[in-house]
Amino acid sequence: MKHLAEYRDADTARRLAAEIGRLATRPWAIMEVCGGQTHSIIRNGIDQILPPEIEMIHGPGCPVCVTPLETIDKALAIARRPETILCSFGDMLRVPGSREDLFAVKAAGGDVRVVYSPLDAVTLARSRPDREVVFLAIGFETTAPANAMAVQLAAREGLANFSMLVSHVLVPPAIRAIMMSPGNRVNAFLAAGHVCSVMGTWQYPPLAEEFGVPIVVTGFEPLDLLEGIRRTVAQLERGRHELENAYPRVVSERGNEAAQAVIAEVFAPVDRAWRGIGVIPASGWRLADAYAGFDAERRFDLTGITAEESPLCQSGEVLKGAIKPSQCPAFGKECTPRTPLGATMVSSEGACAAYYNAGRT
Amino acid sequence: MAEPPPPDVAGFACPAPLRDRPQIVMGHGGGGALSQDLLEHIFLPAFGNPVLDQRGDSAVLDVAGLLADGGRLAFSTDAHVVQPLIFPGGSIGELAVNGTVNDLAMSGARPLSLSAAFILEEGLAIAELAGIVSRMAAAAERAGVSIVTGDTKVVERGRGDGLSITTAGIGVVPAGVELGPRQVQPGDAVIVSGTLADHGMAIMSVREGLAFEAAIESDTAPLAGLVAAMLAACPWLRLLRDPTRGGVATSLNEIAAAAGLGIEIEEPAIPVSPVVASGCEILGLDPLQVANEGKLLAIVPADEAQAVLAAMRAHEHGRQATLLGRVVAEHPGIVVMRTALGGSRVVPMPIGEQLPRIC
Amino acid sequence: MCLAVPGQVESIRDEHGIRMGRVNFGGVVKDVCLAYLPEIAVGDYAIVHVGFAISKIDEASAQETLRTFAELGILEEELAELRESDEPARPAADKTEPAP
Ligand code: SF4
Asked: How many domains does chain A have?
């Protein structure tokens, strides 16, 4: 595929890795915030061709992983209702709630459907006026334009049987939370290219300045990742801490303003709990008051649903980069992708699952 | 009082001739006239062969000659459900035949005869059933097997997925052929017979909610002929496996676990057609985890690998056969991939259904 | 997060008042919402996430990035020549082959 294959060339990758090796004179811990980047790093074995000085810390950028247990339990409660059809992205189906996952609810008769796009859920609502269609709207900034458009469209068409259970999260507040957390070891960040394609890069220079960390906007293919790392290391070695854009073919400073406008209309900032990390102020989006009628949390009585996470699980420490997954006592024992205790073991993007699947210890 | 007219038995004509019903009704599974109708108008004409035509309660096969010089009987069964019933490149009918034929072939057997049991859902269009049955018959002919016995049941609407087919089959393993995980040795070559993930992606391309347009066809094919050609080139094949559900990742993990050895594969060697690779890319799927229905994995002594590959490439179902990797003594039970970039990663056993990812 | 893939816009239409298009991803064609890229035209490449085009690919920047990579290769080669008889290179550099 054009614009993909060019960024996978093995020879160039080795050259970039060699260049990073030439630049690095001491150990650096670099966090890729984004789960998609984690996936690509592990899948291509990029961490293994990096020089030993460079340690990649896998950040909290998997929306599936950080969706709070409580939200999952609410989704499960909605899916159990006979009048509802719960639509979700495929990744969410396997995420365990307190007692079961969406597969189990589906097996027990709940109508749970995998959609590729939130518009598919709107289409379903249009064709099934007899049912309540609820879309489990998770994601980072990248997914927000799609989810926002779905709500807007439902509002315009007056689809009274459509609603959303929203659990949107944002990258910049998470970077701030990581930098402020005790024991933080992160020296620099790769910012998530696709988040920035929507939001632009203007949110990041203040963070780079405040915490004195280089932030390099990075793509997802092997060469993109290596180039992001190379630029990060170059900054670190020179003692700089700036925002750089290593993904300019997709990301501009201002981002997608049409998308930002719709997001601003449909969503409003909210303090959001991140699974394993806890509440981060203003780190998420909820539906704006004008669209409150489409909020599944208001439409269905979900009171009394609260959830406790497994006391064994250290996923918060993993997500913050304080420990490696293999340092969690439950890793590979009580906790495996088949029997995940924390969300980071569930999604293939999750740091614990990525470690487990790669056989990293 | 007028006498009622005597019943005109000879001239009786059913107002709705049974076989002209457009859909399956419960009565088609009742064993009576409707069942007979299905048998006579759909199944027998398609599958007709001397054994089936006996219409006995069981098929009686004379295999003594085939087993005389040390051949052994292989016996396998496979249940098939798929949505949609007809998909690009095939239907549940081809799957039902090829599935069992291939299971037999993986033990080195030459498949002989199949049974077929149909569970029909009330409301299934008879034309659709007929179409699938004729595809099935054609698949059996291509595979060189006959369908010698069968059964049909009907379930109420909403209690079946249109149609499911269970086939069982027997075949003969020639004397001297001994395939299995115990034969696998460190150093053996791992060969795959062609491109991966075609079947799974063909199904995905027509699945509700995911539908996309792409020239992707299921690879469903009978592999017994290919296996015979491979055995002719190298009677000491160690093990064969058809990587269906769960894909090559599942089969390799099973082989590694059963053999108590490690397997190493090379990422650049993994054969995937460009359009299938694109489909996997947009849905976030790993082609190693996606189903195949006409491919096999072979573990072969290293010094025979080239001969086996040559034999495979000369066969219509093995044209794109390629060396995927090797068996190693290290990391028993674990499959490791050398990535194109020079790193490595474990190829895990997929957990469940393949779901498109957003992240 | 955010699996997003580049594809080429094949056609553009209006559906339920929304700008939609057919986008070709290496032979796989899907319906994609183009509402967020009002300037995109048939033939352009866009990054698509969950059925939405979120960013038009800037060809000039793409070329620029690829050129940087290519130059890196040439530079590496020159460095390798300079180092010829020097101390052994790092392990990662061992695998470096001259650009074709
Ligand atoms: S290994 Fe499991 S229990 Fe430990 S941090 Fe990861 S998800 Fe939590």
From this structure: 2
